Amino acid sequence: MSAGIELWPPAASHHAQQVDLLIGSFGAMVWLLTIPVFVLMSWFAIRYRRSREVNRDHAPTRNLWVEVGWSVIPFILVLGFYVWATMLFLDLYRPPPDAIPIHVVAKQWMWKFQHPDGAREINNLHVPAGRPVKLIMTSEDVIHSFYVPALRQKQDLVPGRYTSLWFNADKPGRYPLRCAEFCGADHSAMGGTLIVMPPQDYAVWLGRNRDGGMDGTLAQAGARLFRDLGCSGCHSAAASVKAPPLEGIFGRPVALADGGTLIADDQYLSDSILLPNKQVAAGYRPIMPTYGNVLAPEQVNALVAYLKSSRAREDSK
Amino acid sequence: MTDEPRFEHPPEERAPSYLAESHSLRSWFFTTDHKRIALLYLVSITLFFLIGAGAAALIRLDLLTPQGDLLTNDGYNRAFSIHGIIMVWFFLIPSIPNVLGNFLVPIMIGTRDLAFPRLNLLSWYIYILSGLLTLYVVVSGGVDTGWTFYTPLSSVYANGAVVATIVAVFISGFSTILTGLNFIVTIHKLRAPGMTWSRLPLFIWSHYAVSIIFVLATPVLAITLLLVAAERLIGIGVFDPRLGGDPLLFQHLFWFYSHPAVYIMVLPALGVVSELITAAAHKRIFGYWFVAFASIAIAVIGFMVWGHHMFVSGQSVFASAVFSFLSIAVAVPSAIKVYNWTATLYKADVAIDAPLLFALGFIGLFVAGGLTGLMLAMLAIDVHVTDTYFVVAHFHYIMVGGSVTAFFGGLHFWWPKMTGRLYNETLGRIAAILILVGFNITFFPQFLLGYQGMPRRYHVYPPEFQVLHVISSLGAALLAVGYAMPAFYLLWSLLPGGRRAPANPWGASGLEWTTSSPPPKHNFIAQPVVVRQPYDYPLAHPASRDDG
C-alpha cells in the first residue's frame, strides 16, 4: 500500500472544476432531501414501536396535497440541476474553431496519436497548456473509451465511425489516460499519459518529434498517399475514368445518387474510402473499389487531412 | 365494524399441508403446485447464487493487490463475466418473482393455483435447462465478454464460449416470459370474489407491473442475442462495421431490454417492502393508490430511458438530453414510494423484527442507489463517472442492497408460511444488521474509487486505489457472513423439533395469513370471499378506511 487514500482527483481543466462544483452542489442538495427521510423513518420506528404507550389517534393514511408536494418539489429542484448539467455537457460538443486537431486511433491494446504537423506517438499524448485541443478518434477493432479522469471527460472510440472530444487543459502536468470501455484481455493495461506542457516546451517537443514516423505534416503525408495509391488517376479533371473531383470537397454539400445530400465531413470521406458503396455521389457509377483492406486507419486520417487542406488552399485562392 | 371478521371464511377443516401431501420425488419433479414449484426455484436460484458469489469472491480476493496476483487478465475477465451473467439472469431476475411471487400470487388473491400450472412447471424446467448450459460454459472455459456482450468484441473478437452463453440466456428468456404471462392471466382472471383491483395487495401490483416488462422486453433481448450469435457464426454483418454493420445498434437493442431488466429486478422488491412495512407497522399503507400506480409508472417510463447507458458512446447530443430528462422523471415514482413508506410508520404500532430491519435496510440502500442514479442521469457528471466504479457501486446498491435485501426480508417474513416453522428471531435481526453494515463497507468505497477515475472491469489497477479496494474486500467478507447466517438458522428451523408457526405469526392482514402454515394443497379449505380493504388494521383512520 504505497499510497494513502486520495479523496479527490486532480483537475486539469476549467471544465473539470465545473464538474466538481456541480457534483458537490448536487450532492449537498441530495443530502438535504434525504437526511430528513432517514431521521423521520428511524424516529417513527422507535417512537411508535409496539408496546409503547403513545398517542396514535387519527393516524393519517392518505393526503393528496402531501403526495403532490413531495413528488413535485424535489423534481423541480432536480430539474434545475438537469439544466446546469446539460449546459455543461453541450459545451463538450462545441469545440472552438482554432482547436488543434489531433487524430487518435485505438486498437487492442494501445493508443496511437497523430499530430497535425506530422509528429506521432503511442500511449503518450503531449498537448500545450491553455490551448484547445480537439481529438478526432476512431478504433481499429473493438470499442474503446478515451478517459482522462483529470479532465472529467471520456468518449468512446467506435470502429467504423469518428467520434471527437475537445478539452482545454490549463494546468501543466502528467495525467493518467485510461481505457474505460471493456475491450478484451488486456483492457486494464491499455493506459497512457496525457502530458500537458507549457506552450513553449510543447513547441520544442514538436520540433524534436516532427519526423516521428512520417515526413512532413499529416496533410503532406496524405498528399503523397493520394499520389502513390493512384487516387488522382480517377479523381482528377484529366482522368479517363469519371470520378468526382475532390479538390476543396471538405465541408461542401454533396448530392447523392439516392437523392439525398450531405456535407462532406471526416465521416463521409473516410466511409467513401473504406465503404465506397455506402453513399455514392450523384451522377457517378459505383465503381470505386474499397480500400479497407489496403489502408491502416492512420493512413485514412492522413488522406482526409490532405483533402481538408485542399479546401484550405481553395479558400485562400 | 372492527369486530366483524376481516374475511368471510368458513371454519378450518383439517387438510394435509402441501408439504405433507406426498413425499415421493415424483411428487416434487412433476408437481404443478405453485408452492412446490416456488421451492424448486428457491433451491435452484440458491445454487446459482453460490456460484455467482464464488466468482465475486475471486474478484474481491484478486483486487486486494494492484497487480492482481491471483488470476490472469483473461481469468479475471471470465470471473466478472460469469458473475454478472449468473447473478442477473440466473439469480436476480428469477429471485423474488419465481420464489416469493410463485408462492404468494395465487394465495394473496385467493385462488388455488396460477392460471396455467403446467406452464409454470415448464418454465422451471426451461430455467434449469438454460442453467445447465451456463454451468457447461463455466466448466468449459468460460466467457470473456462481460454480461453486456458489447459488439464487435462479442461478435468478432472474444474467444470464450460466447455462443453457448448466448443460447443459455436466450433459453432462460422463455422461462421469464412464461412466468410473466402466467402472472398477468392469473391476476386478471383468478381473483377471489370481492378481490377488486382496489383491494389488491401492493405485492400483486408490483408483480403485475414486472410481468408486463417480462413479456414486452425479454423478446427484444432474445432477438438481439441471436443476431450476435449469427454474426459470430456466419458473419451476417449487423453489428460489425467492417461488413457495414453498426456496433451502437447493439447497445440500443441491448439496453432497450436491459434497462427495463433493472426494474424487473427492483419492482418485485418494492412490492415485498410495501408488505413488510405495513405488516410491521400494523397500519394501512399511506397513499395506497400512489404506491400502486408508482409501480406501473416505473414499468412504463422504464422503457424510455435506455439511452442513459450511452451518453459517451457517440449517441446524438439531443437524444442524450432527452434520455437524461426521462431518467430524472423515472426517479419520481420511486421517491413517492419511499415517502409513503416513511409516512406509513407515523403513528403506527411498529414491531421491530427482522423483516422490518431488512425493509429499513432496503430503503436506505435503495435511496442511496437511486440518488447516485440521479447523479449518473446528469449528463456532465455521467461523462466523468460512467464505466467507472461509481457505476459499479450504484447498481450494486440497487440490485444487491435493494433487491437481495428485499428478497431476504421477504424470505424471513413468509418463511413461517412457506415451511410452517419459526426461525430464530434474534439471529434474524443480527443477520439483517450485519448485511447492512457489510454491504456499505463493501460498496461505499467504490463510489470514491469511481470518482477518482478507477474504470470498471480493471484487473490491474494503479496503486493509489489499493486502500479503498482492500476496505471493499474486507467488507465483502463481512457481507458473506451476513448472507451465510440465514442459510443456517433457516435450515435449522426445519429440523424435527423446530418451532411450529401458527397461521398468522405476525398478526398481519392479507389472505395468505388466513390459511394454515404451511397451506393445504389448494391453499384454502373453501373459497375465500374478500369483503374489506387491504391492510385493514385497527389503527387506520376510520374516515379513510374504505376509500383510501
- The name CATH uses for the topology of chain B is Cytochrome C Oxidase, Chain A
The radius of gyration computed from the alpha-carbon positions of chain A, rounded to a whole number of angstroms, is 27 Å
CATH topology of the largest domain in chain A: the name is: Immunoglobulin-like
The strand order across the widest sheet of chain A is 3-2-1-5-8
Q: What Rg of chain B is obtained from the alpha carbons, in whole angstroms? A: 23 Å
* Beta-strand proportion of chain A: 15-25%
Mean pLDDT of chain B: 93
Describe the global form of chain B: globular
Order of SSEs of chain B = EHHHHHHHHHHHHHHHHE
Question: Mind sketching the topology for me?
Answer:
The complex is a heterodimer of chains A (317) and B (548).
Chain A (H helix, E strand, L loop, with lengths): L13 H34 L16 H28 L8 E8 L2 E5 L5 E3 L1 E5 L4 E7 L4 E5 L4 E5 L5 E5 L5 E7 L11 E7 L1 H11 L8 H11 L24 E3 L5 E3 L2 H9 L22 H20 L1
Parallel strand pairs in A: 1-5, 4-10
Antiparallel strand pairs in A: 1-2, 2-3, 5-8, 6-7, 6-9, 9-10, 11-12
Chain B lengths: L6 E2 L16 H5 L4 H29 L10 H36 L8 H23 L13 H5 L4 H28 L12 H33 L12 H35 L6 H14 L15 H13 L1 H15 L8 H24 L1 H7 L3 H31 L5 H28 L13 H27 L36 E2 L18
Antiparallel strand pairs in B: 1-2
